[in-house]
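User: My collaborator and I are trying to settle a disagreement about how two of our proteins should look. Neither of us wants to argue from intuition anymore, so we agreed to look at predicted structures for both before our next call. Could you fold the first one, then the second, and keep them clearly separated?

Assistant: That sounds like a sensible way to settle it. I'll keep them separate. The first protein:
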Amino acid sequence: MTDEIEALREVSSILDGLPPEAVVRVLKWVSDKYKVDLTQIGSALSGGQSKMPPKATASDLPEYFNSAQAGTSAEKALVVAAWLQTVQGNSDFDSGSVNRELKNLGHQSSNITRDFDDLMARRPKLVVQTRKSGSTKQARKLYRVTHEGLVEIAKMRGEHA
């Protein structure tokens, strides 16, 4: 079991920095090399039930946000970020977009950068930075919610991932 955990850590650290299309190519190559049908993994491990995190289904942000019952400012940012990513189809998003939506919901962050730093500092990471434009500390950064972040939101919403 220890070898499996170490392998998962290494794979995760390698894939975290890749864009989604590169992750798909890598996983396809691995599945071909080791003759693994990726579509069967979730049901094989769970006795027929998939272990994939649920995709955000509420088409309406206020409904989705309220169903999550997020407590901290960082958790609120995570919920909005996941909604932008999964429902709106934004593979990457900036913190300003998240904070604008939070403001519309009446939950504007007093320091959105700190909130995203908090989400990235957690282990496992709930959000990863995918890009940075510019060299200053205030440069525009793009983020993506991780699989673990989506699982965390499913827990907040009372769903079982």
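The second protein, kept apart from the first:
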Amino acid sequence: MAVLNDFKNFILRGNVVDMAVGVIIGGAFAKIVSSLVSDVLMPPIGKLIGNVDFKDLFVTLNGKTYQSLDEATKAGAPIVKLGVFFNQVFDFVIVAAVIFFVVNRLSALVTPKVPAADAAPAPATKECPECAETVLAKARKCKFCGSGV
């Protein structure tokens, strides 16, 4: 019974709920980014490189040549899927960049702005150039000798 109460308290804490929402939204965001990379960004990049379809960019390890990745997979050939790897790298870079900018902006909003400290506060007193006595900084005449300060 105590374990169930501990579990209930754990689940109902705000951190766990926030984390669960973050994981769900992160999963959906990852699908969007994957589609952006494989369906929007990679085709023009492949076109610029010379009509390369990154999905079909692969190397077989058995020395045989196949026309497509599907053909090599069906033949059971050992494959290094370079195109899939490149897509995953681009996915990671885009997700990392977006997370960096979101966290950067959120921390700027959440972190209170601390005003920059002035170099030094203005001195409260100054020295009279005639008699060398100390007078208030706001004074226009020395209270000791009457000269202008």
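Some points you might bring to the call about the second protein. The chain has a mean pLDDT of 82. The CA atoms of residues 69 and 92 lie 23 Å apart.
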